[in-house]
Amino acid sequence: MLDDINNTEENQIHIRHAYLEEYEAAVSVSLQSCQQSKGIETSVSRKTTAQWIRDATSLKYGGELLVATNHIGIVGATVYHTPNSMPAEVVPRNWASMSILTVLPDFRNNGIGKRLCTNCIDLARIDQAKYLGVAVSPEMVDAILFFEALGFVKTKYQKLLRQKQYFQYRFSVRKRIVTPCQKKSCSACR
Is residue 77 part of a domain? Predict the structure, then answer.
């Protein structure tokens, strides 16, 4: 009898807060992931992007580093920010937010990004935020489709971050995250 590949121990994905000694590994995973993403660097240099990812993932600006792990180590990461901890030009002061949502390319399309988002939404509920916000570059079409498929809504304006325009998305934490279809072509199922 064949084992169900999704139920084997080595394929189990665990979402948790990162240990201090894992921060550098999370930076590496985030950099690898972003280097293979479409639209990440069209108007910002690779060096600037790498420094921004390194700063955010190493919590230079605060936040909580969440990681997705399996038997090989860290395969995804995101940074959760409590309400009132991010500059107002990123998200309104009373919103929680998340940044640097990354999943290694070999592990995409398995719901890891959705699970990282769900954990941030749960933390935002605990922190009594009304919304969880994200800033997304208009060039990152896959990320836009991903967040919209999960139920995030684009606000009516763009914010200027790091000399570039970003869309601001929000998710009402009172809602449940949308359960997308399981088709490989669906960006939220990635």
Answer: yes
Residue 29: Cβ-neighbour burial (10 angstroms; 0-12, 13-18, 19+): buried
The pLDDT tens digits for 29-68 are 877 877 666 555 444 556 666 677 777 766 777 788 999 9
The predicted-structure confidence for 71-130, as pLDDT tens digits, reads as follows 999 999 999 999 988 877 778 889 999 988 989 989 988 999 999 999 999 999 999 999
DSSP string, 111-134: SHHHHHHHHHHHHHHHTT-SEEEE
Q: Which domain holds residue 155?
A: 14-189
Instruction: State how many domains the chain has.
Output: 1
Q: Is residue 29 part of a domain?
A: yes
Residue 168 domain-assigned (yes or no): yes
